[in-house]
Structures are given as structure tokens and as C-alpha cells.
């Protein structure tokens, strides 16, 4: 009987340790995903330097290249957020493109170091004479 209790306590201890380690590592690696309206409303929850993801559409006429960085504005129709993207923009980056950016606030500007173009899961073959023409 004492042996069985010792085994149950050991299993319980190991499970508690695994749960605690999982929760702490999740908290450190969790990256939030917000739209511009949410990001502006929750700015106090993400002080400068706290990373999160920002999703929106690149506003027409807002793209400017400045010494290797790209500055632009993203919107969700409710709020606009100024963005500075360091590094190379992803393929298909253009005005009106839906983007997913990862970075942090730096004052009133979102400083992004990663960017992806968002798209749905539906693939459409190019039109005749498009990117893949038989020849």
C-alpha cells in the first residue's frame, strides 16, 4: 500500500512539473495577433518592445523607402497604424495587399522585422498566357 502511494505521488509530481514547464514556455513564446483597431485600443497591454503580430491591409499611397527600411500604413478600416519594416519585404508586397507583420511598438510606430502576405487557401491557376504558358 505504501509503495502504491509513493508511485502515485511520483506520477503526480512529474505531471505537475510538465504542466508548469509547458505553461511557462508558452507564456514566453506566445505572440499575439491583432488588427490595427485592436492594437491601438490595447497599446497599453503591449508596451514598447513587447512583440505581437499586426494584421491589416497596406494603405494605397503610403509606401515609402527610407535607407533600406520601408515605411507604410496598415489599416483594418477602423484605425491606421504607421509601420516601419526593416529588411526585405515579402514577394507580392504592394498597396492594398493584406499583410501579417511581426514586431513591437516603438512609440507610435509599429517596428516590424518580419512580414508575410496573407492569402486564402484557394489556389487559382494563372490565366492563359500568364506565368506558366506552354511553349
Written account of the structure:
By secondary structure, the protein is an alpha+beta fold. It folds into 2 domains: 1-30; 31-117, Nucleic acid-binding proteins (OB fold (Dihydrolipoamide Acetyltransferase, E2P)), CATH 2.40.50. The chain contains 2 helices and 7 strands. The protein has helices spanning 2-29, 36-41; strands at residues 32-34, 52-58, 64-66, 69-75, 80-85, 98-106, 109-117. The protein has a 5-stranded mixed beta barrel with strand order 2-4-5-7-6. A hairpin with a 2-residue loop joins strand 3 and strand 4 (69-75). Residues 130-135 have low confidence and may be disordered.
Quick synopsis:
With 135 residues, this protein is an alpha+beta fold. It has helices spanning 2-29, 36-41, and strands at 32-34, 52-58, 64-66, 69-75, 80-85, 98-106, 109-117.
Instruction: Give the CATH architecture of the largest domain.
Output: Beta Barrel
Residue share in helix: 25-40%
Mean pLDDT comes to 83
Strand order of the largest sheet: 2-4-5-7-6
Q: Give the amount of beta strand, in percent.
A: 25-35%
**Morphology:** elongated
Amino acid at each position: 500500500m505504501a509503495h502504491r502511494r509513493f508511485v502515485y505521488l511520483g506520477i503526480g509530481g512529474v505531471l505537475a512539473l510538465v504542466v508548469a514547464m509547458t505553461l511557462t514556455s508558452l507564456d514566453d513564446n506566445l505572440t499575439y495577433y491583432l488588427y490595427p483597431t485592436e492594437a491601438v485600443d490595447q497599446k497599453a497591454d503591449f508596451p514598447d518592445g513587447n512583440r505581437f503580430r499586426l494584421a491589416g491591409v497596406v494603405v494605397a499611397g503610403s509606401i515609402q523607402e527610407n535607407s533600406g527600411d520601408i515605411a507604410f500604413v496598415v489599416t483594418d478600416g477602423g484605425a491606421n497604424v504607421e509601420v516601419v519594416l526593416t529588411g526585405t519585404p515579402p514577394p507580392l508586397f504592394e498597396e492594398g495587399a493584406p499583410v501579417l507583420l511581426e514586431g513591437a511598438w516603438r512609440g507610435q510606430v509599429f517596428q516590424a522585422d518580419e512580414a508575410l502576405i496573407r492569402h486564402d487557401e484557394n489556389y487559382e491557376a494563372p490565366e492563359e498566357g500568364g506565368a506558366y504558358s506552354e511553349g
